[in-house]
Amino acid sequence: MAPPSRLLPPMLQILRRRCASRCHFSTAPSLVSPPSKAVLYDEHGAPDQVLRVVDVPPVHLGDRDVCVRMLAAPINPSDINRIEGVYPVRPPLPGAVAGYEGVGQVHALGPAVTAPLSPGDWVIPSPPSFGTWQTYIVKHESVWHKVRSDVPMEYAATVTVNPLTALRMLQDFVKLNPGDAIVQNGATSIVGQCVIQLAKVHGIHTINIIRDRPGSEEAKDKLKLLGADEVFMESQLDMKNVKSLLGALPEPALGFNCVGGNAASLLLKFLRQGGTMVTYGGMSKRPVTIPTSYFIFKDISLRGFWLQRWMNSDKAEDCRTMIDYLLGLVHEGKLKYEMEAIPFGEFSLALEKALGKHGSQPKQVMRF
């Protein structure tokens, strides 16, 4: 008589062998994902008009697929731009699932997965991947990067886009040494908050520009607590010699612009001879206007940074190494930023807040 194991169908024999090699693997792993809920859109337009939450049927796992139960995902400005149809790279329509980054927990593994993953592990799509605003995702094992689970899940969900942008801009344009300085506008943004803290870790001084609005003094105090050396409101810089405000700080060689318009002009006033301004956003939707004298007499350089282009240039392993480094700083208490967690069931409210319909709000992070 054949041994009991030989009486099992071939697929179940494979799964049984996987059970023996993975101590955390479920004794009855599913090759089909659970039913899911997802935020879909079929056409570009205003997010509060084109998005809808729908039930998604179970999805079969391929041999090397991983089914992930999403834990949290943010609503980023770039997510809004993709839905509106104004971002350079967008998922195909109709039936696009919104969202681009997030963190999940391994739910089930295909029978031929070779990555060192087990059910319960925290993973993120790295580089980021379309479709994170859903409760279960099935993608090839190569998409997923295991991350530490001893940090708040909101940080694991948001580590890829904003903190990584801050880190790359500090490293890619000007060689900075301890004691040097940088200047930035949009300092209250998550990228701005990360720039302050990452610069502090490396001994770099930061000069920060924020908008004049209610709560500016409170915002200034918060940035100082994060390690900002100087924080100026735009109205304070309506003067010819802004460098007199620096005191003992050196003139910055590098500036980060995410606003454009007048805020970019104010930033340029601080840059030293031969300095570089890097633009990575345009929140004011106003153009960057540079006086000719800045080019002729100060030799100012203007550069741009787009994280997605950087990640698409064979940087997958570098990206994952830096994500681990950033989450290590989070664990050590050296990197933090303002977010608001909100249940996925209250998606409409989270979207309204992300769209600014409730005034200025922290980044919205949906918890599934």
From TrEMBL:
* Compartmental location: Mitochondrion
* Biological process terms in GO annotation: fatty acid biosynthetic process
The residues covered by the Enoyl reductase (ER) domain are 45-366
- This entry's Enzyme Commission designation comes to 1.3.1.104
Q: What class of enzyme is it?
A: oxidoreductase
Cite a single Pfam family from the UniProt record. ADH_N
- Keyword field: Fatty acid biosynthesis, Fatty acid metabolism, Lipid biosynthesis, Lipid metabolism, Mitochondrion, NADP, Oxidoreductase, Transit peptide
Q: Which domain of life is it from?
A: Eukaryota
| Catalysed reaction equations from the record | a 2,3-saturated acyl-[ACP] + NADP(+) = a (2E)-enoyl-[ACP] + NADPH + H(+)
Give one GO molecular function term: enoyl-[acyl-carrier-protein] reductase (NADPH) activity
Q: Main location per UniProt?
A: mitochondrion
A GO cellular component term found in this entry reads: mitochondrion
**Family affiliation:** Belongs to the zinc-containing alcohol dehydrogenase family. Quinone oxidoreductase subfamily.
Which PANTHER family does UniProt cross-reference here?
Answer: ENOYL-[ACYL-CARRIER-PROTEIN] REDUCTASE, MITOCHONDRIAL
The record describes its quaternary structure and partners as: Homodimer.
Q: What name has this protein been given in UniProt?
A: Enoyl-[acyl-carrier-protein] reductase, mitochondrial
Write down the species.
Panicum virgatum
